[in-house]
Amino acid sequence: MVDSRFFFVSLTIILFLVFSTVAQSPDQTVENKSLRVLSKTLIGDDGRVYACSDNDFFSFESNGSIAWSVHMDFKCNTGFSPVYSGFNQMLVLAENRILRIDFPRNGTKTEPEMFFDPGETILGFAVSISSSSVYITVKDHGLYAYSMLRQQLWIAEPKTERFGYRLGCRKDYDNCKFDSGPVIDSCEASIYISNNEGELYSLSLRGTYYQWIQDLSLVDRFFTVTQGNNGLVYVVFPTKSLVFALDSFSGDILWQKTVGPLAESSSSQPVIDTNSWVSIGSLDGTLYSFSRKGELHKIPENVEADLMIQVEPLLDCSGNAVYVSQTKLEGKTDLVIGDSTYVSAKKPETAVFSLVVPETRSIHWSHSYSDQSTSLLLDEDLQHFVLDERIVLAFIAASNSGNPFRCRSKHVKLSSSCSFAEPEHLDIYIGNERAIIWFLLFEFVIIVLFAALVRFCFIFWKKQKLQGRPFSVFLDKRRLLHRKRREIDRTITRLQNKSTADEFSVDKINDLVQERENVKRKLSSTYSLGRDIDASKSKDHVLPLYGGGSRSLSFRNRENESITIFQTHRHESSSSSEESYRDQHYDDDDDDGVADDENDEGDLKRKQKGKFFVHSEGSTSDDDYESCGVASSRRSTYLKKRSLSLRD
Fold it and tell me: CB under 8 Å to 585, separation ≥6 — which residues?
């Protein structure tokens, strides 16, 4: 029995060498060893294809002709594609050095400039045009960030601690190191990079801040990472034939899908179109496309058994479709061992190139090339290079073969590049909308009441009587004033209901009325629950209250004796002096505290021992009377006692 290992050959090597003969014309007599090998290609916004070979950098037109070339002092690394750095410049990796190549100006070429030379192995690099920075992974050292002016910004290592806790390299801290090139997500301003322990890091573009670290070693330590620029990060496990979608903000796994067998090379990199569909080719000949939510489209649905896809698809200029290359073989055998699938293949017969729209599963264009084809409609400049499916597919995509869609401009690319970056907004109010409205209204009322309470407390605690005094003293004084006012009211009522009215009773009533008004003034100002009121601006009144002019108050007893009280106006100057005296008197009374109320009754009795006969001379208008107030005016009281005779 023949050992099965002989059948498990590398498909990439076989098809790379065999398909190169398909692309050559029969007249070509140059041996394959004299042909030059092109690096991975880059399709620029100008429609040209950029690649390097040996010590030369080439810019090809879409038909394969060489537009211009630049000689380099170092041999380029064919495993990396050139990277556009903006300002009509390209960065190329050559012999572990990064060279900067300027586009020719007015036909004048410039020599490549050394941008970065670490003296160590470079695992990969990426450029962020928005931040004008270059990020480089150096083996056994870390991730370096440089500006376009070649100034070092920062260095990041896989070993990190925060608040005393180890975040990365949890299994083998001493031997942990980055082992992949950086991947930049421009929409999230993040860098994705993995270490040799199977951990995926998310770093900020502007510093060594680790946003999250996801341990994927339980699935496999070997994986590739592709930025989605749509709020997702796609991780492909080639040996497991798995595709993971991670949240770019938190690193959480949103969904995982199984695809057909994948090649263990960079050809397992997926491509994302502007509709946020991610597509990856499989060795079973099927293009697997997933929506942002994980919906699967298989193109074509029914594929022939002898087809395979060994190169990664390329996005067309419109961003809506992808170009795919399928290889038709003479025979193919699949073998599953454990979690891995091994594919053995025979000689390729035909290469089929197609233009596919993943969202609609439609194939807009398809063309096949076989070894009987005399030409691939490419310029003869490409005859000096090895043409495999990867190179041919790049030129087909650059020439927009069979593309019915309109190419996007640079402005449209920038405006639509992050159109799916924000996650979809979910409606969390799935209940009764009317109940939600009432709940929001209730919250609004609570907030208004709380604001009013805060304002009341702010005003209340600014009162003068609360400064430097206990709150209980203020309440006791207020309670005593209320009790005093009730006692005065009862006393006035009792005196008015007496059957006899003499001069002493009238004086006592007058004093009690004034005393009651002063108590009210205290309760409404200094001892109120609101703000303090300036006593000089208040209007104090003493019963009886009238709008103006002379007023009289008469009492009559059973013996037909009457007492009449006449009220006249006082002079303004005398009113002011009396009011200031009274305010000073009661302010002093307030300062004395609650104990002064015990002497109020004694003061009242002393006042009742005398009579006041005062006549205010001079004229006073009604307006002056209103401004001064009846309660603050001096009164001239004339008692007239007359005996009424019996009825005639």
Answer: none
The pLDDT confidence band at residue 313, using thresholds 50, 70 and 90, is: very high
Q: Does domain 234-426 have CATH number 3.40.1000.10?
A: no
User: Are 327 and 351 within 8 A, CB to CB?
Assistant: yes
Q: Which two tokens stand for residue 252?
A: 């959480």
Nearby residues of 23 by Cβ (< 8 Å), 6 or more positions away: 369, 376, 387, 388, 392
The pair phi, psi for residue 354, each rounded to 5°, is: -135, 155
Q: What is the pLDDT of residues 381-397, one digit of tens each?
A: 888 898 888 999 999 99
- What is the per-residue pLDDT across 5-19, written as a single tens digit (0 to 9) for each? 333 333 333 333 344
| Distance, CA of 321 to CA of 401 (rounded, Å) | 12
H-type helices in 497-648, by residue range? Answer: 503-524, 572-591, 600-608, 622-628
Rounded-to-integer distance, Cα 66 and Cα 51, Å: 11
- pLDDT at position 69 is 94
DSSP designation for 571: -
Confidence at residue 177, expressed as pLDDT on a 0 to 100 scale:
92
Q: What digits encode the pLDDT tens for the residues 273-309?
A: 988 999 999 988 899 999 999 999 999 888 888 888 9
DSSP-derived secondary structure for 590-601: HHT-GGGGGGHH
- Contacting residues for 628 by C-beta, under 8 A, at least 6 apart: 539, 570, 572, 575
Amino acid letter at 523?
A: L
Model confidence over 233-274: pLDDT tens digits? 999 999 889 999 999 999 999 999 999 888 876 567 899 998
For residues 292 and 230, is the Cβ–Cβ distance under 8 A?
A: yes
Instruction: Look up residue 446 and give its amino acid.
Output: I
Q: Which residues pair with 59 in a beta bridge?
A: 50, 68
Cα 181 to Cα 99, 288, 521, 557, distances in angstroms: 17, 25, 83, 114
DSSP state of 643: P
Indicate if the pLDDT at residue 549 is higher than 90: no
